[in-house]
Design goal:
mainly alpha, 76% helix
Length: 127
Amino acid sequence: MKKQFFLFAAALVFSVTSLMAQGGMQRQTPEERTKTAIEKMAPLNLTAETKAKTEVILTEFFTAQQKAMQEMRASGTMDREAMMVKRKELAETRDGKLKLIFTQEQLKKWIDEIEPSLRPQRPQNNN
């Protein structure tokens, strides 16, 4: 009985550690990702109207991105190159819409600082 309890406890610790190491960004809903992005946009000093339009654009982007990933998983062909092309298309569409509502300064700050901080970071392999 003690052996089983010890094995269960060890498995539980291993599972929790593995989950924590994976990070939380992977399973956020499009709405949660939009909220995170809007919070990071505070330095842009968006007006209420611009902020509302931005939320719609980002929610559409994150929803389309999630749908594309789900379709690729469902098809069984996880073609990395195809997914990168699709993500780039979606990002260009998003940035084109943002360009219409942001000032040049806001767009530059979005492209140079904020957008890169939203991408999931992969751990560095120090081999």
